[in-house]
Specification:
By secondary structure, the protein is α+β, with helices and mostly antiparallel strands. The chain has helices spanning about 25-40, 120-130; strands at about 5, 50-60, 70-80, 85-95, 95-110, 115. It has one domain: Thiol Ester Dehydrase, Chain A (Roll).
Length: about 130
């Protein structure tokens, strides 16, 4: 398992009510995905040939994240298909779940402008992230 990704809340992430704006959580999830992919696939992964597109996001807000909180995000794989997979996110502050979410990702070859089957190395990595409790 990969260590959770720590997020630094910026003042610009806040809304007028003093908590992280709802739209910012997608950026937090994106930062976590990038870190996970770097650890799983390395820096030399060919993203043009073996890339992916984001098809769908879902977020559930349980508690508000504030400026001085230090959120950490853990990613799990919940579904692995032939060409797509689903990530599930848990954003925790001090060990308590504040936000959950998911993303449906489609594997895509940008050089050919077409969807592709999940590459073997990626699929192996996704299996390592599979949730055991679902």
């Amino acid at each position: 398992m990969i260590k959770p990704v720590n997020i630094q809340v910026r003042f610009s992430d806040l809304d007028i009510m003093g908590h992280v704006n709802n739209s910012v959580y997608l950026t937090y999830f994106e930062l976590a995905r990038v870190e996970y992919f770097q650890q799983l696939l390395g820096e030399k992964w060919d993203w043009n040939t073996y890339g992916m597109l984001l098809k769908k996001n879902e977020i559930v807000y349980h508690k508000s994240v504030l400026l001085h909180d230090t959120p950490e995000i853990t990613i799990f794989t919940t579904q692995i298909g032939t060409k797509s997979f689903t990530f599930e996110y848990e954003l925790k502050v001090r060990g308590e779940i504040y936000t959950t979410g998911s993303s449906l990702m489609i594997c895509f070859d940008a050089t050919k402008n077409e969807t592709i089957e999940i590459p073997a190395k990626l699929k192996e990595s996704l299996i390592l992230l599979k949730r055991n409790d679902i």
